[in-house]
Amino acid sequence: MDGWSALADPTRRTILELVAARPRAVRELADRLPVSRPAVSQHLKLLKQAGLVIDEAAGARRIYRVNPAGLAALRAQLDRFWGQTLLNFKQIAEQEDQ
Question: HSE (CB half, 13 Å, CA atoms) of 27?
């Protein structure tokens, strides 16, 4: 799964926002969301596959945090998309002026 697809779900976007604020365990995330711990774990699994979060063991828990490299890659994709969109808009506007 890529970053775009991973963020299509509003729950995953909320999870990413929460771990961007500070690293968190699954239980902490589930306490803040209207979904179960297993559901949060599944969302985190997809975010991890997309490269947007990383995790580390802390005793019996796993702590999730944002993966800066994954966010940078997503940002680069968004910048390319935005640049192309602006170029297309400019071309259309220039055609209408003629």
Answer: 3
Tally of CA atoms within 13 A in the half-sphere of 24 that contains its CB: 21
Biggest CA–CA distance in the chain, Å, is 67
Integer Cα distance of 14 and 3 in angstroms: 14
Name the phi and psi angles at 66, rounded to 5. Answer: -70, 140
C-alpha distances out from residue 4 to 61, 78, 85, 93, Å: 28, 9, 17, 28
CATH number of 3-97: 1.10.10.10
In the chain, how many H helices and how many E strands?
5, 3
Structural domain boundaries of the chain? 3-97
Per-residue pLDDT tens digits for 49-74: 999 999 999 999 999 999 999 999 98
pTM of the predicted model as reported, rounded to 2 decimal places: 0.82
pLDDT, tens only, 32-45: 999 999 999 999 99
